From TrEMBL:
Family statement drawn from the similarity comment of this UniProt entry: Belongs to the acyl-CoA dehydrogenase family.
Flavoprotein recorded as keyword: yes
Cofactor: FAD
Statement: the UniProt record of this protein carries the keyword Amino-acid biosynthesis: no
Annotated coiled-coil segments of the chain: none
A Pfam family recorded for this sequence: Acyl-CoA_dh_M
Gene3D superfamilies: Acyl-CoA dehydrogenase/oxidase, N-terminal domain, Butyryl-CoA Dehydrogenase, subunit A, domain 2, Butyryl-CoA Dehydrogenase, subunit A, domain 3
Residue segments, region Disordered: 1-24
Superkingdom of origin: Bacteria
Listed name of the protein: Acyl-CoA dehydrogenase domain-containing protein
GO CC list: plasma membrane
Amino acid sequence: MAPGEAVDPGEAVAPDETGSRGVAGESAGFRAEVRGWLAEALAGEFGAARGLGGPGREHEAFELRAAWERHLAAAGWTCLSWPEAYGGRALSLADQVVFHEEYARADAPARVGLIGDGMVGPTLIAFGTEDQRRRFLPPIRAGAALWCQLYSEPGAGSDLAALTTRAHRDGDDFVINGQKVWSSLAHQSDWGFALVRTEPGSRRHKGLSYLLVPMRQPGIDIRPIVSMTGTSEFNEVFFDDARTPTANLVGAEGDGWKIGMATLGFERGTFTVGQQIGFKRELERVIALAKRNGGWDRPDLRDRLVRAWIGVEIMRFTALRTLADSAADTPPGPASSIGKLYWSTWHQRLGELAMDVLGADGLLVEGEPYELRPEQSLFLFSRADTIYAGSSEIQRNIIAERTLGLPRA
């Protein structure tokens, strides 16, 4: 039997009567609670934000989505994994997965506070001082403070250890000079967390420190980077004697690499499950397009659509297995690199498939205001998937060295 002959992914991707196959260990009734709250919350003023935002589309209804973030917080739906002592809900891993699944299925707007909620917040809980936690965690929890990541540099992206942005002590402050690049939403952020070199003459992983930096100050120049989609959620950030108090050093001087890598580990948490539901929705739209324009009747395209559906299912189970290892206090090791390599490649191929389904129409935009079709945006923005959040080349090196035991490159 040829792939796709007996399987209709246009039907297979649809949720069942309950909208879910369930996640082992989820609390009874929790899924219904989440689904009910989202249905009610998105029926009013926030209904206009449904489906807006996300990679390549962060400009969409940003103020409305910021208000949605505060609404989520007021109802107790932010910082679900945090301990209750810091304002979180200390939900089980299974219930966190349920929330992110239902959030994505409800087509709720892309959140603007994920970097604070899922990256810097857990980092401060793990490595910060009690004063830092008392100061920074409540505004994140309330959706009142937005954060950005200040890691990559023009000469230190995939090779992050080559970074050259430096900071030196001046009384009770660190003074920062240098440049960061590809900083998502830096132009909208109140704070950033930065890896900088605080030990003169140090090299590679040595001499790096992790600083919390106020973004709205003299000495910081933020310049948008316009991508192929015409949007500009990425930014260059220039530091010219910018300052942050020494009290905003997380951990000790020189511990930056360890803490920075821990932050990246938090990034690949339960949020990825919701991401995959979003991927599935994109695939559903491509399948629907193929059925409208006759692409579904082409065996080559139907085969690729079926394989894409199989791929997103593999992605889900791989993510759940990785999260299960994490819940069992088993270090995932290179598993997160396998997941990143897989989803970025899959998503990029989905963009290519979407354009092939469009055919010659993919060369055109529809009428005024002459914006890109969703399939065109998917194709163009997914070119970056294999670069950001860890390039595919680096992920392959990690897998080769740490899983297969091959010599270091």
